[in-house]
Amino acid sequence: MKMEMPKPITFYDTMTGSKRLFEPLIPGTAKVYSCGPTVYDYAHIGNFRNFVFVDILRRTLQSFGYRMVHVMNITDIDDKIIRDAAGEGIPTTELTRRYEKAFFEDCRFLKLEPAEYFPRATEHIEEMVDLVVRLQDKGLTYRAEGSIYFRIAGYRDYGKLSRIDLSGIKSGARVDSDEYDKESLRDFVLWKGHREGEPSWDTRIGKGRPGWHLECSAMSHKYLGDTFDIHTGAEDLIFPHHENEIAQSRAAYGGEFVRYWLHCAFLNMKAQKMSKSLGNIVTIHELAESGINPRAIRYFLLSSHYRKPLVFAEESIEASRSAVERLEGLVRRIRDIHKSGVIKSGPHAGRITEKARETFYQGMQDDLNTSKAMGGIFEMVREINPLVESQDLGAADAEAVLVLLKEVNRIIDVLDFSDEILPGEIEKLIEKRQEARRNRDFKMADQIRDDLRSDGIILEDTSEGVRWRRI
Ligand SMILES: [Zn+2]
Q1: Which of 116, 337, 351, 433 could crosslink 398 through cysteines, CB 3.0-4.6 Å?
Q2: What is the Å distance from ligand 1's center to 215 Cα?
């Protein structure tokens, strides 16, 4: 089998503030860490803008030929979880398992591909304690009122990612809460000392629980090593969360930590950032209950570039729904032509398809510019539709369009090709079956024959080889 080089792609890296060609540490493999959900409530559509971006990143890298090692953490212990579980009078795990399950349902609803690993914070306490001990050994921590803090003045590069002004910082000023803004730039908490009524772990650094920032450093190290390729998150995580991750990881493990920082812009409702505190939430759970087409939401979230602000409005969902319908309409008409088997070739179809393919990949290779990429595809729709009307499109042209749309759909996944199988794919499966038979793997051979039959394809073994026909 011939090894193909993955397609080149550039990413905008927040750390350097520039677009850079993606060069992974291990050629052909992309090691990616994504800050995942805090499972204390249903996720809102703003959270899922970021998760859909992560899905597009994943699928694009895979379709470009990279092998993925992708980790997304599940935050199942933090201030909000403790507050809400106490409010309901239930153990924190009961609350977190409920919303973790809801999160995965939302992911399936929006067709997100699962990461390779979804580690839970509470199942990595030992790794987090180990990280704190390493920082203690380097003299970067101190204890105050039963908790352990990271002394940011001890880490020379603190603030580089967010370009924060460190001049006003007072040594020994601390912050206990997991979330805070730039105005409260202080030493942050690594390990929170035990408080009555809060879940805690008895460990060699004392009884308590981890601060939020600690978990991503400990878990990315466990699954991806000292240095990995890409770290993703919503843009509000740049400070303090990612800044703190960098300080902990680089100080403790000594590696480069992250080579490309990718941040997804907010989803706005009118002029305000969408977040829980504003009370203008639309949860995916609510949207699913409302019977809305999930493909319209997925398309809405993916169709503008992830670094551009996006506004959530009913009209935009409506526009996305009709965009998906236009694509589906073309697929339907093209399939009919393809099935008709009329062999003729229009003068322009080949060129139109090639141009669309080029624009699509140029867009995706340029920092996942989905808006440019899909612009190319819709241009093709505009140009192919009249050829369909005037019957200037033959079966071969139709197949070329279908092949491209299937390629595009490996990334955008808003079209349904489940019942469509093209001659090229049938030939490949027949070849695979022949090989299975040569290897006397009759179970596999029969399986392929049965699968094809359920797709409406009958195989006939003849003296001249295998023939196929549609039922
Ligand atoms: Zn994180």
Answers
A1: 337
A2: 7
> For residue range 214-256, what is the model confidence (pLDDT) as tens digits?
999 999 999 999 999 999 999 999 999 999 999 999 999 999 9
Q: How far is the CA of 6 from the centre of ligand 1 (A)?
A: 28
**Residue 271 has what pLDDT?**
52
The string of DSSP letters for 40-63 reads SSPPBHHHHHHHHHHHHHHHHHHH
- Residue 419's contacts (CB-CB under 8 Å, 6 or more residues apart) are 455
CA 238–ligand 1 middle distance (angstroms): 10
Determine the pLDDT at residue 339: 80
Q: Which of 72, 79, 67 is nearest to 6 (CA)?
A: 67
Q: What is the pTM of this model?
A: 0.88
What dotted CATH number matches 10-302?
3.40.50.620
Q: What's the gap in Å between 10 CA and the centre of ligand 1?
A: 23
For residues 140 and 95, is the Cβ–Cβ distance under 8 A?
no
Q: Which positions ≥6 away from 435 have C-beta within 8 Å?
A: none
CATH topology assigned to domain 313-412: Four Helix Bundle (Hemerythrin (Met), subunit A) (1.20.120)
Query: Ligand 1 center to residue 108 CA distance, Å?
Result: 22
Residue 12 pLDDT class (50, 70, 90 cuts)? very high
Query: 270 alpha carbon to ligand 1 midpoint, in Å?
Result: 27
Q: Is the confidence at residue 346, as pLDDT, over 90?
A: no
Domain range summary for the chain, segments of one domain joined by +: 10-302, 313-412, 423-470
